[in-house]
Amino acid sequence: MKEIDRVLTKYPFFGSRQIAAYLRREGIVVGRHRVRRLMAKMGLEAIYKRPITSQPHPQHPVFPYLLRNMVIDRPNQVWCADITFVPVKNGFLYLVAIMDWATHKVLSWRLSNTMHADFCVEALNEAMAKHGPPEIINTDQGSQSTGSAWITKLTEAGVRISMDGRGRYLDNIFIERLWRSLKQEAIYLEEISDGFQARRVIKDWMAFYNTERPHSALDRQTPDDAYWAGLNEQKAA
């Protein structure tokens, strides 16, 4: 499952047949049907990968996507949040991150061994305590971001809620790229045995990402530099 997740992160358009062929070329003997069974168990699909437990809850509200054709060019205008898998020796952990859309700065993150919504709300509380509420926050339609605790927190803070269209991973493309970079640059370079090691690896990489990793889309600034520069510009204006 770890190898399937690694390949699909690198080539998200691969189906089970292509993944099986790719793994066989790397010396991992596996058949297409086993790959397909394990992908289903992990909740992974070609093109759009998501933990299966982030499927919409039938009794939770769904909000429209608000960002289409919007110019997003300042800090705290739009945040986005998402959950991904982190493979460890005996299974998977779940990682949520909250990111500022315009500057790509990771504002907070939490690691959990369950998909209960509490760890998502904890990350949201930390981000808002440190940076104040955004104007809009965008998520997928998973049950963690449509539950009452998440919605109530945002509504009370006056934050407008936006949600991706079903199956449209491009609606939250920046945080999808974050996951790809995290896995390729940190997660898959180590044999992570447990949550303590995973937390250390992720903490170190997130600090590197925010403060040292320049982005071409930010004129070679780091996310931290772009975020704080943008806030200073707003204050000056």
Order of helices and strands, N to C?
A: HHHEEEHEHEHHH
Supply Rg. 18 Å
Specify the helix fraction band. 40-55%
Low-confidence stretches: 47-53
- At CATH's second level, what is the architecture of the largest domain? 2-Layer Sandwich
Sheet bearing the most strands, described? 5 strands, mixed
Secondary structure blueprint with pairings:
Layout: H1 2-10, H2 16-25, H3 32-42, E1 78-88, E2 91-100, E3 106-112, H4 118-131, E4 136-139, H5 148-156, E5 160-163, H6 173-185, H7 195-211, H8 223-236
Parallel strand pairs: 1-4, 4-5
Antiparallel strand pairs: 1-2, 2-3
Description:
The structure is a single chain. This protein has 2 domains: 2-49, no CATH class; 78-236, Ribonuclease H-like superfamily/Ribonuclease H (Nucleotidyltransferase, domain 5), CATH 3.30.420. Helix 2 crosses helix 3 (32-42). With 237 residues, the chain is of the alpha/beta class. The protein is built from 8 helices and 5 strands. The longest helix has 17 residues, at 195-211. Strand 4, helix 5 and strand 5 form a beta-alpha-beta unit. The protein has a 5-stranded mixed beta sheet, with helices on both faces. The termini are far apart.
